[in-house]
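worker-3 :: picked tRNA(Met) cytidine acetate ligase
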Amino acid sequence: MKAVGIVVEYNPFHNGHLYHATSAKDQTDSDLVIAVMSGNFLQRGEPALIDKWTRTEMALENGVDLVFELPYERATSNAPSFAAGAIQLLDAAGCSSFCFGSENGTIAPFTETLSRITSVRSEYDNLIRESVQQGMSYPKALNRAYSTLIRTTKAEHETVDLSLPNNILGFHYMEAAKEIGTSMEPATLPRLGAGYHDDVVHDTPIASATGIRKEFFERRSTEHIQQFVPDSVYRSLNEWLTKRKSFGSWEGFYPILRLQILRDGPERLSTIADVTEGIENLLYKAAKQSDTFQQFMGVVKSKRYTWTRIQRMLTHIYTGFTYRNRASMQAPDHLRLLGMTSIGQAYLKERKEELKLPVVSRLANFDSPSANFSSSVSDLYAFGIDPIHPALGLDYRIPPIRKG
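worker-3 :: tokens ->
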């Protein structure tokens, strides 16, 4: 059986994701779709709208056959580390190809760009490093290096625009694949409809996940997002609200985060991953004077520290993820199975002896720093969703979800 791999967050699953899953399978002539999905905290440094189990169910009902979890340390990392972890897992799962959405929509410019950057790798990396040290955000530093070294020289073939968010991530997938020497063939699909950060437009069925979340939190109702998600997803979102009353957000998690910052103080905060340059003092000061998350971010955000960079720090503070934790978790060491269809189950049975990493169905059967930390993160997420009656120990109690 031939599998195509995709990297997802599904926060929440929407019609654009459905197009991605089904089109990736068709474009690569694959028998099934394998998704590597972030867990309960995401790459932009925020809690997921709904937990990984519910998002897994949404995926399996809408074109995905196997869902593996991207470990916390990769799911909440910067773009290169996020992409590297995901590609390593897709390769370990035996995918013949991987497919990502991009603003560009064709693979040749990515291949050309990667080839040209590789030829000036040292100079390119140094320019990015210098820009970041000067206070520039990583995406801007990347685009500056690209514009200086690549865009300004004559290209024999078209190169990709690395100022656009999905193109940037796609480039890092390609870079990671080259780094590990995978046999997976790359493919890309054009991103449809709304841009990554666009608000929803109600005369189209496609909206970005960012726009959908914003629409919900502004209107406090799922009714206005129904047209942008498959029917099964809409039902799941409403069932979630019926049981838990709220979706995951920093506004909801902030009271616990604030307590942790005030309890730990600057000295402890300085040991947390991504907390650098004395910002722990500002974080502590902001927590003392800010009653809401928006107030807190208003105190902390600056040109030097982007919203996303700060949120990643806060995610690590919330979960207690230290520099020492990160050092103990290098390359992914297992395939954490969250769910499968009957086709996905057949694939695992067929490929069992060929997979490069062990498939872990329940964490009770596997011991590693990465797996153990993921379990604690799930419990902390549950406290943020419902501090009174948190659903604890799900990583040890819930078996892989089965559909179809």
